[in-house]
Amino acid sequence: MHHLSTWAFLLLLLGVTNSLAQGVWRRDSMKASPTLHYSEDDFEWTTWFNVDHPGGKGDYEQLDAIRFYYRARMCETPRALEARTTDWIPAHRTGEKVHIDPALGFWCVNAEQPPGRNCSNYSVRFLCPRGQYAGSDITAAWGAWSDWSPCSAACGQVSTQVRSRTCRSQTSRGEQQCKGPSVEGRSCKGPECPGKCKLQCVMGRVNAECDACMCEDHTVLGSVRSAGGLPAPGAPVLRYGPNPKLLTLTDHNGHFSIPGLCPDGNTTLMIRLQNHAPQLVIIPRSTDRISVLQIKLERAKKLLVEKNPENKARRVGQTTAFCCKVAGTPGPEQYEWFHNGTLLDRKQFQYDETLVLRNLRIDQAGEYYCRASNEAGAIKSKPATLTIIGQDEPSCKPTPESHLIRLPHDCYQNQTNTFYYDVGRCPLATCAGQLDNSIRCKDSVAYCCGVAKMEERHINCQGYQLPTMVVTQCGCKKCVDTKAIVRGRAVAADTGEPMRFGHVFMNGMRVSRTGYKGTFSIQVPTETERLVLTFVDNMQKFVNTTKVLQFNKKGGAVYHEIKLLRKKPPVTLESAETNTLMLGEVTGQDPIAEIQIPPNSFYRDNGEVFVGNVQASVTFLDPRDVSTAAAAQSDLNFVGSEGDTLPLRTYGMFSVDFRDEEGGESLNAGEVKVRLDAAQVKMPEHLKNMKLWSLNPETGLWEEEGDFHVEKKRRGKREERTFLIGNMEIRERRLFNLDVPENRRCYVKVRAFRSERFMPSEQVEGVVMTLINMEPTPGYSTNPRAWGRFDSVITGPNGACLPAFCDDQRADAYSAYVMANLGGEELEAVASSPKLNPNTIGVPQPYLNKLNYRRSDHDDPRVKKTAFSINVAKPSPNTAEEANGPIYSFENLKECEEAPFSAAHFRFSRVEGDRYDYNTVPFNEDDPMSWTEDYLSWWPKPMEYRACYIKVKLNAPHEINVRSRNMGGTHPKTVGQLYGIRDTRSIRDLDQSTVSAVCLEFKCSGMLYDQDRVDRTLVKVIPQGSCKRDSVNAMLQEYLVNHLPLAVNNDTNEFTMLAPLDPLGHNYGIYTVTDQDPRTAKEIALGRCFNGTSDGTSRVMKSNEGVALTFTCGDREVTRQSVFQTTQSFPGSTNGGRQGRGNRRQRGGLGALRSSRRRSTRNPFRRNQTRA
């Protein structure tokens, strides 16, 4: 593992391993046997599988289905099977009737359970012969903890017990992989002392105060060093106990001497030092006259909320609990709970970290948050909302909300004069479901408002009827289980060079690696509140970079582009001399600051002063260069004294690395002086608030290192310059910041859309919105010279609210740039030239003029259209048109988040491509919660999305529209019924003007939602116009012939197949990818299809590579608003209807999939030429 302190950080290893006893079923007995063991040399457990959900008939974790989806992870003959619920409850403890057979799998039938109860959601794993599957290279885990050591404390005293464990987990390469500590300790108290003075001494005598044992002939000598290894002068040394007593202070060398303390193994000292964690030291048992203690302190860990209270929904009279988990060193001393901003009475509610509310009333609804504090500071949790529902009220509003989906181009609706149809949807809200009487921090089952009833409707189109499912009633259902994914690329900020094969760390543990192109993907752990990742370059080209990444807690993937600063080449310093390093990167301008290192200030980790040459590399991020904003570390936030998370405005960040020139050992530096040129601070009020900060790589928060004081220095005879001087040590943290807190804050409302049809149903979730605050020059000029802060937010169903600095005195005091990114694609802002259109931009006049809205190409049409700038003018409370967005004052965040669509907002849109998707059962790819249990769902299983594409080559003088029509093929519940339609326009070959190709999505074959049996999807590929099928890929044709039934292909104008069950590959012209996010699965599959390979990717269509079908078409040019001929759409008038479908349980909300994803491949140079 690489040392993260090499450049910027020291990440501490944190981890806890819980061992839960599980029920094990052997192949021969099929009985619960928790004590069953197998030789580790012969067998190993697979990973946990969960291929079904307890809807429909029950939960069926069948071995055949698991092999279908996870063939590489399963062995042929599993020896035993282990089952547990997703809440980690062993199957034999649930009280449910279940069936287990290692040869068949696991199943739980709802009809066999007691009345009113259904099966839980189970996961299973199998015991396999070692080496027969490729699911894991881990052979074991932590061994059991040893017993606690005996407590050696005498009566009235305190001691420490320890226990240990050994790591039995290693990879095939011999690397240990256990997480967490191998040794842990806890304090223990000795027995009570009898008599008037109950203290008894095993050594020496009791002192006059009867609070310690004294040994006059014994002396304790000690040496105390700070976290960086330097001596710690002036550190208080106290005798630890119920009433700690100050014994002495360390001298200028960090040494102390205390006579009279007994070396009895019980006497405990406590050492304190500012910004360090208090440390307890037991004087070891000894018969010597002198005991020597070497003590190195650890940096204090500020309080951090590890678990925020969760939203709850309850009925009047019920009970609920909110919990707040806060960590730190030292830990929290006090908890306080607030309801709608008002402190709750501790005596009345008897709370600590848990707040319990009984016999709930309507007036107790609202927001709750906790505040934890200790002597070092405080921190507040995020608020949780408590919804209280009357006894007779419906838990969810039964009437669905309006939700419009876009229909195919040949389905114009005369009744509404649009191409839209209202299918309805249920609101995404927490509801009060069937809960047990237990008081839990987190409900054992999460309930959400979801679909209770759906009806089939038939939409009249040109020559056919299109079936669709419409929500008619909402109800309280179990929430759909989802997973949050973060993916992206790590590249150089200057050239875009990828960080190849680098490491990605979270909480000190490596969680991922970047690929050859810098790509990475991480599943966000369920309990994560704040995702802090550190990117470490193996090749040492780039500075170690810590980022706080936004993710969608509702599930799905969010894409981030990680910009990395290139590491500066080192310079050689002489440790015995004064050394000065300049901080500034803008040519022709003075440095912002300088670092001054006095002689003999370098030292090793053990505190020894270093003598010799030092290789010093200092990389400075200069905010005067606007292009560096994306490479800034963390998110520029700190925690204030009252526990609020507050923003910083930066004047520069610098990362340092000092090394022994000969041995390469990392060095620390003490008494370093930072000199900031006051002339570079353009806002005079910032001078008195400037501070030095260091980044905590575990939390991603900045922590104060020191203040500045003013010093004037004369240069020449006349010029006098003012500097801000700050002192600091450079030890385990290597990334620093010159910042000021800023309290003039607002929020900017922004929404993203699938196209330039700015309608509520066209909004896109999961878009990363970024706002860069620009620094005003003196007099608040509108020509900003540097950036001061950046923020990113993920769009939800109601857009996003971006924090920004603002001013209520001058409209042009602060300006900002806003950008939007979805999966690496930059979205377009609304045009501002040749004139402003308030209706299109989304902001009315005259407020729009006051905000000075400008798209990035306003003055130069060659510039890309992917950003806009505004003046962040704080809304005036006396001006009516400014009270309805898009700028909201800081205290009105909730009003911004809940603003109706009609309220003013700024807009981005995707560049609409030549593609159209239609699903019979609507589903919003941006919102995994909108998945609905239905046999005709395009994606039959949430959290496991399988995307399939077929590559079609077309010999034609023009680009051609191609449709895939997907219907049930072999499943009795869906045969002959429509799953959905995909329309895609071909992309012309760059070298052959009469050749184009298309990657056309079709519905994959496989298990349907009940996981009962597979369906071979009946897929028709239909080019528009006069086309004739020339050829079918020989390997694909052979596969279809050998895997009956075989679809009839009498019509040479199209191609029909029963889709393959197997993920074939480029040799067949079929491209299949499975991922936990639908958009990611489709993006990867499209990249492979464009490239014509099974493992590569391309954004340029390679028309002759990996083709499945070839057609030759006539010369009629396709129009953008093309209408498919009746014979190429649906024969008959009611094709796709549904018959004989039984009742099914529905879960989740309902959304419409209307993605207009475009790969910039028709002419990959066009946008660069026109928008460079």
Automatic annotation (TrEMBL):
Superkingdom: Eukaryota
A GO-annotated cellular component: extracellular space
Signal keyword on record: yes
InterPro entries: CarboxyPept-like_regulatory, CILP-1/2_8th, CILP-1/2_b-sand_dom2, CILP-1/2_C, CILP-1/2_dom, CILP1/CILP2, Ig-like_dom, Ig-like_dom_sf
Residues in coiled coil: none
Compositional bias of kind Basic residues: 1155-1172
UniProt keyword annotations, A-Z: Extracellular matrix, Glycoprotein, Secreted, Signal
Every Ig-like domain range: 278-387
Signal peptide boundaries: 1-21
Protein name, entry field: Cartilage intermediate layer protein 1
Residue ranges of the region described as Disordered: 1125-1172
Gene symbol of the encoding locus: cilp
Compartments (UniProt record): Secreted, Extracellular space, Extracellular matrix
